[in-house]
Amino acid sequence: MAHRIVTVFLLGLVADASAMTHAQAMTRLTAAGMSVTSSGGCSDRNNPTCTSFEGVRENTIAGLETLKRASACPINVTGGTETGHASGTYSHWNGYKADISLNACINSYVTNSFTYIGDRGDGAPMYQSAAGNIYAKEGNHWDILYY
Fold first, then answer.
1. Signal sequence span per UniProt (predicted)?
2. Is residue 26 part of a domain?
């Protein structure tokens, strides 16, 4: 008797399953000792002056927690899934990216612990962690891509 193996792919469901609410993400970030700043003092995902984590991937929050733990630096998160960032598959809107404020401690940690991989098209120097995450140093913040 022959056996058949049936493989089912549930595209999109895995990403949805790892998406967090704003409240869930805030709980994790604050419990890890991070601060969150919004230039507009709000968390509305559809307002570009807000800082929202609605729909952020769990891996992104876990990456920030790891960065905080490994660096022992103050981490202030200034950007999440709110509108106003560049589009694309691995975008802020899709939950893959977060922005954090620059400070001497985190700047030193990223540039000394991760590998410089060149400049992005906009001139931002990029550093890659051993896990493959990419840290781009923009004008006043780190733009971080967590895979």
1. 1-19
2. yes
Q: How far apart are CA 104 and CA 145, in angstroms?
A: 20
pLDDT tops 70 at residue 10: no
- The predicted-structure confidence for 32-59, as pLDDT tens digits, reads as follows 999 999 999 999 999 999 999 999 999 9
Let me know if 126 is exposed, middle or buried by CB neighbors in 10 A (0-12, 13-18, 19+). Answer: middle
* H helices present in the chain, as ranges: 13-17, 22-31, 58-71, 104-113
In a domain, 131, yes or no: yes
Domain presence at residue 27 = yes
Domain assignment of residue 97, yes or no: yes
Measured on CA atoms in the order 117, 146, 101, 47, is the torsion positive or negative?
Answer: positive
In this predicted structure, the answer to whether residue 15 has a pLDDT above a threshold of 90 is: no
Q: Compute the distance between CA of residue 91 and CA of residue 51 in angstroms, rounded to an integer.
A: 15
